[in-house]
Design a protein that fits this description.
The protein is an alpha/beta fold and about 300 residues long. The chain contains ten helices and 17 strands. Strand 13, helix 6 and strand 14 form a beta-alpha-beta unit. The longest helix is centred in the C-terminal third of the chain and has 16 residues. This is Transporter substrate-binding domain-containing protein.
């Protein structure tokens, strides 16, 4: 990659609560009061704060099914700017397919659900550190991620693509036409790796959130955005003038979809998750949740 440009954003600290981590800085809201039925919408949850996370630490034994039941709370990390998988409704509540899946898992365990809405680069590291039980954030089970955490079976599949301005569909129709052009994607996402591997002659614009990538595309600051096909189609519904590009983005079929991350060695929780994913897939729940989330995102015009 010729050059990587990363735009840094400052995270706002919640009044009266400051939490620091070696990886990220963020803030948290109070947990919901209705056990096993509510979703906490921490506007920017603490990365590494014991008081905010309420988790006991980095031993897999502290995040097993029985340990979570004894604690009475399932703690999940996400980054809620990725419709229809995770985003916020008009009241700031975290909704979407991943939120529905997280709530279903909490209900199965008979515990309260707390969702920590944090920077995407921290959703997995918080699980590694023991500050959360699992990460459900549209994560692809890449070989790199599997080295640091356990990844569940896929709960939703889908390929990768490029979003371009409709007016530039023919202008950027070949890989060669993208040489020297700026391509944008979310920092830390699978698309960053795909960009470096498949488009080494392009410039990389790495941003904290996909909506920022779309905004840059609309202003002409980049030629294309690398993104998953499901989200690309969602943006096309809510944003005029976008189109899926003609240049393909190749992916490994085994990593072509979304999976849940848990702490390395936590096979107990992993087996529970895989069992429930299979059940929710078979009974149609996951597709129903996805359809509902997609309809809601479209009605909100979510970017």
């Amino acid at each position: 990659m010729k050059k990587v440009t990363a735009l840094l954003t400052a995270l706002t600290l919640a009044v009266g609560l400051a939490a620091c981590s070696a990886q990220s800085t963020s803030t948290a809201s109070a947990a919901p009061s209705d056990a096993a039925q509510s979703t906490s919408t921490a506007a920017s949850a603490s990365a590494g704060s014991e008081s905010a996370a309420g988790v006991v630490g980095g031993d897999p034994a502290e995040h097993t099914v029985e340990a979570i039941k004894a604690r009475g709370k399932l703690i999940v990390t996400t980054e809620a700017t990725y419709p229809p998988f995770e985003f916020q409704d008009e009241n700031g509540e975290i909704i979407g397919l991943d939120a529905k899946l997280a709530q279903a898992l909490a209900d199965e365990l008979g515990v309260e659900l707390e969702i920590q809405n944090i920077d995407f680069n921290s959703v997995v590291t918080e699980v590694q550190a023991g500050n959360a039980d699992m990460a459900i954030a549209g994560l692809s089970p890449t070989p790199e991620r599997k080295e640091s955490v356990e990844m569940s079976d896929l709960y939703y599949g889908g390929g990768q693509c490029m979003l371009v301005l409709e007016e530039n569909l023919d202008k950027y129709a070949t890989k060669e036409s993208l040489a020297g052009q700026t391509l944008a994607t979310q920092k830390g996402a699978i698309q960053q790796t795909l960009m470096a591997e498949q488009f080494p002659d392009s410039e990389a614009l790495l941003l904290p959130k996909f909506p920022q990538c779309i905004a840059e595309l609309k202003t002409g600051a980049c030629a294309a955005v690398l993104i998953d096909e499901v989200s690309a189609k969602q943006y096309m519904e809510t944003t005029e003038g976008l189109a899926i590009g003609k240049v393909p983005v190749e992916t490994d079929p085994a990593a072509n979809g979304n999976a849940i991350a848990v702490m390395k060695g936590n096979t107990d929780l992993l087996e529970f998750i895989n069992e429930k994913i299979a059940a929710y897939t078979e009974d149609g729940s996951i597709q129903t949740w996805f359809d509902e989330a997609q309809e809601k995102a479209s009605s909100m015009g979510v970017l």
